[in-house]
Write a structure and sequence with these properties.
The complex is a heterodimer of chains A (652) and B (146).
Chain A lengths: L1 H29 L2 H4 L2 H24 L6 H6 L6 H7 L4 H22 L5 H25 L23 H30 L4 H31 L11 H26 L3 H24 L12 H29 L10 H31 L5 E3 L1 H21 L10 H7 L1 H18 L4 H25 L6 H26 L1 E7 L4 E4 L2 E12 L3 E12 L6 E3 L2 E5 L5 E4 L1 E3 L4 E10 L5 E9 L2 H18 L2 H22 L2
Antiparallel strand pairs in A: 2-11, 3-4, 4-5, 5-6, 5-7, 7-8, 9-10, 10-11
Helix pairs in contact in A: 1-3, 1-7, 3-6, 5-8, 6-7, 6-8, 7-8, 7-12, 8-9, 8-11, 8-12, 9-10, 9-19, 10-11, 10-13, 11-12, 13-14, 14-17, 16-17, 17-18, 18-19
Chain B lengths: L2 H30 E5 L1 H5 L9 E7 L5 E3 L2 E7 L4 E7 L11 E6 L7 E7 L9 H17 L2
Chain lengths: 652, 146
């Protein structure tokens, strides 16, 4: 019964979302107030229906109702309860349901927190979101319904893929989807602006916090995914340029460009068309990501079920979204495009340069990701484009961005003095140079790329500190100022971590017997032995290793595991990691060799946690930016009018 | 500065950036693409001579032999067999009789040296490249012996 209720709620949600998508937009276009006011309640109803549907699916998982096909495919009687919740979005159907549920949550948040906005603008934004929602709901209902019954019911479920049985799964997809879907809000704002022809500083101020919020979620989602791959998948790396990773990274790159372009539109009224294009691009890439992951054209840990119908459906949806929004752009952009002028050296021009570079970087990633698919589609053979391509292209494009971002906050709007900027940057420049020369020497080996990475990271961090100190002299800066500097500081930390791991990590695959020792990265690893250990739904071989710093010091014990899940014949590696501020040491078990010997992988990873720490700081910066008083003040001062407006609406 | 000069500088800068990016991309694509070939292709001498390439196929039953942490095995499309050696830890899903993709050094001849072994999917999953290799081999075998 519960699954049917969920299914029914889903169908109702589709009907209401069509109302939400069509009537308010037409109402706004033809000035029909009774259609405009439908936007908010419709969004709220869709949200409630989606929540009901989502809870129904979660409940079926909780009860392990194996007469529901999706549950039977992704759960098992022995699956621990926590992972049963994670399993709700552990497969294709459920994760799309989550996608739409998130979309309806964003929509209802827009409806709730936009009381100060002009009614017709809100109606258009919510309308566009309604159209996107109905498109995706059609997709869910026709090609990937999670509530399909399996009759007769399965006796036991096929179980969740062991790779996904990890706390990381519980958080990674929702965060990532919040980010993906959040760009739908920026997209809806952009389309609403095109529809109304009104694209001004106020518009940019409305859409800025939403874009930043989406960016924060996406940053956290990608970081969580990377961290999960590092410790759970046992591959030992933090980024593989896997097509699915790229699919989440491309919207991030465009989203980052969008954040900065929106800042210019808000402060100076320039870059309007560019901002709109970026908003359309970021959301289109989110959809493209969904297409790539869900259509089965790619193969990776994320793509399990493949069904060509699904791919075609998303492709059509993608073409509709991109095509119609670009057509609208071509038609309406001339009306909204005029903006302030600026000199060759100014904050605008520097931000534009950074923006163009980010877009070029995104395009190069897109090319590398799609190239094998295009070659295959043209029957020119099968190829793979590996990490070396991405490193060779991406790093040189991003290095100037890192160089510029330290100086941009110093440049004045409209017309800046290059000499003045250079004069203020000599201290960070000197520090960067010094760090570039000394740090690699101290770490044991000077390499040009290492020096460049260290220098850039010090350059960004030091110039941030100097700018903050200067700004503090003239009173306490607003939250958005701290947000920007935290965000940039996060990049500096991230770059430092990436440089250190890339340059100084050590890896060894060795054969070890109990009592054997191996020296890696200044640590001595001693194998004590491997024992059998039962788990809740698996049996494991559990290794015990003693790790001692070579110079003497505290002994650490590490317990890597090799697990065999009862529901599958697929073994799973659980790496053991001793995490530290300046280094991780990492042991994972390969396969048993003859006797008591095992193949063992041992890593020394200096500063690896700075990579995710940097992402956390970036996200924190985003939160600061969103919390800036200037967005909130408007909400407070406007709350009264909105209330009055609601009354007026209610009376006739 | 005159307006047209500014425009020209911006457009010139943009073109230069795109040009450099394109050069980087083309250069990187040229040297970092790995072609997929089947064991039959390798046997017929169709594998690249100077570039790394990937062999898709099945790990032949009974072919896995360990020597310390070096693993010797045979990649097959059920028509031709190619011996491969890999030093290091294999992915969890590497198994005899299952599909796998290996990236090998060019021109190593005899026994190919794998730099990477890919088998990181679901247990019932067959990499499309491996499946493709089997299908192709079956087809040519069919036409070769009527």
């Amino acid at each position: 019964m519960t699954p049917e209720l969920g299914h029914f709620a889903l169908i109702l949600a589709l009907c209401v979302s069509l109302v939400q998508g069509i009537l308010p937009i037409f109402g706004a276009q033809y000035g029909r107030r009774e259609w405009i006011v439908l936007a908010r309640p419709a969004a709220q109803v869709v949200f409630l229906l989606m929540a009901a549907s989502f809870v129904a699916l979660a409940w079926s998982f909780y009860l392990n109702d194996f007469s529901v096909q999706y549950v039977a495919e992704h759960s098992n009687a022995q699956l621990p309860t926590l992972y049963r919740f994670g399993a709700v979005w552990g497969g294709h159907e459920g994760s799309l349901l989550l996608w739409v549920f998130m979309l309806s949550s964003w929509t209802v948040a827009v409806a709730q927190f936009s009381r100060t906005l002009d009614e017709t603008m809100v109606a258009r934004v919510i309308g566009v979101l309604g159209l996107v929602t109905s498109g995706l709901l059609l997709f869910v209902l026709f090609t990937s319904n999670p509530f399909n019954r399996l009759l007769p019911a399965a006796e036991n479920g096929r179980d969740l893929n062991p790779l996904l049985q990890d706390p990381g799964l519980v958080f990674h997809p929702p965060m990532l989807y919040m980010g993906y879907v959040g760009f739908a809000v920026a997209f809806a704002f952009a389309i609403a602006a095109l529809l109304s022809g009104r694209l001004d500083a106020a518009w940019a101020r409305w859409s800025r916090p939403w874009t930043t919020a989406a960016w924060v979620f996406l940053t956290l989602g990608i970081a969580l995914g990377s961290w999960w791959a590092y410790y759970e998948l046992g591959w030992g790396g933090w980024w593989f340029w896997d097509p699915v990773e790229n699919a989440s990274f491309m919207p991030w790159l465009l989203g980052t460009a969008l954040l900065h372009s929106l800042a210019v539109t808000e402060k100076r009224g320039s870059f309007k068309s560019w901002t709109v294009l970026l908003a359309i691009g970021a959301f289109s890439l989110s959809l493209l990501g969904t297409f790539l992951v869900r259509s089965g054209v790619l193969t990776s840990v994320h793509a399990f079920a493949t069904d060509p119908r699904r791919g075609i459906f998303i492709l059509v949806l993608l073409l509709l979204v991109v095509g119609s929004s670009l057509a609208l752009f071509a038609w309406r952009a001339p009306k909204v495009a005029l903006g302030g002028s600026f000199a060759l050296v100014s904050r605008e021009s520097l931000l534009l340069t950074g923006n163009v570079l980010l877009v070029v970087a995104c395009a190069s990633v897109l090319l590398g990701t799609l190239y094998p698919l295009i070659i295959d589609a043209l029957k020119l053979g099968k190829i793979s484009v590996g990490p070396p391509y991405f490193n060779a292209v991406f790093v040189p494009i991003m290095a100037p961005v890192l160089f510029l971002m330290a100086a941009v906050p110093l440049a004045r709007w409209k017309n800046a003095d290059a000499k003045d900027i250079a004069l203020r940057m000599w201290i960070p420049g000197g520090l960067a140079l010094l760090a570039g020369i000394l740090v690699p020497r101290f770490m044991g080996g000077w390499m040009a790329m290492t020096a460049l990475g260290v220098a850039l990271s010090v350059w960004i961090a030091a110039s941030g500190v100097i700018q903050i100190a200067r700004r503090l002299k003239s009173g306490v800066p607003p939250a958005s100022f701290w947000g920007m500097h935290l965000g940039h500081f996060g990049i500096a930390v991230f770059v430092f971590g990436v440089t250190m791991v890339g340059s100084y990590q050590e890896e060894q695959d060795v054969r070890m017997e109990p009592g054997d020792t191996v020296l890696v990265g200044g640590y001595q690893f001693k194998m004590i032995g491997v024992k059998d250990e039962p788990g809740p739904n698996y049996s494991a071989s559990r290794g015990e290793f003693e790790v001692t710093p070579a110079g003497g010091g505290a002994v650490n014990l590490l317990y890597p595991e090799k697990r065999n899940y009862f529901s599958s014949t697929m073994p799973m590696t659980e790496a053991a990691i001793d995490a530290g501020f300046t280094r991780d040491v990492y042991v994972s078990l390969g396969e048993p060799l003859e006797g008591k010997a095992w193949a063992v992988r041992v890593y020394f990873k200096p500063f690896v946690d700075w990579i995710w720490g940097g992402c956390l700081i970036m996200a924190l910066g985003g939160l600061f930016a969103v919390s800036d008083r200037r967005y909130r003040l408007r909400v407070k001062s406007g709350a009264a009018d909105a209330g009055a407006g609601a009354l007026k609406v209610a009376t006739p | 500065m005159k307006r047209w000069k500014k425009r020209a500088a911006i457009i010139g800068g943009g073109l230069a950036a795109v040009g450099i990016a394109a050069a980087l991309v083309l250069n990187a694509l040229n040297s970092n693409i790995a072609l997929y070939v089947t064991p039959s292709d390798v046997f017929a001498g169709k594998a690249p001579k100077f570039q790394a390439f990937r062999i898709g196929g099945l790990v032949k039953e009974g072919s896995v032999r360990r020597d310390n942490i070096t693993v010797h095995f045979v990649m097959t499309d059920l028509v031709k067999d190619i011996p491969v050696a890999y030093t290091g830890i294999l992915p969890d899903l590497f198994k005899e009789g299952k599909g796998a993709v290996v990236q090998v050094k060019p021109g190593s001849g005899g026994e190919y040296i794998a730099t990477e072994v890919l088998a990181k999917h679901d247990e019932n999953y067959m990499p499309p490249e491996a499946k493709d290799a089997l299908d192709k081999a079956q087809k040519t075998k069919g036409t070769g012996t009527p």
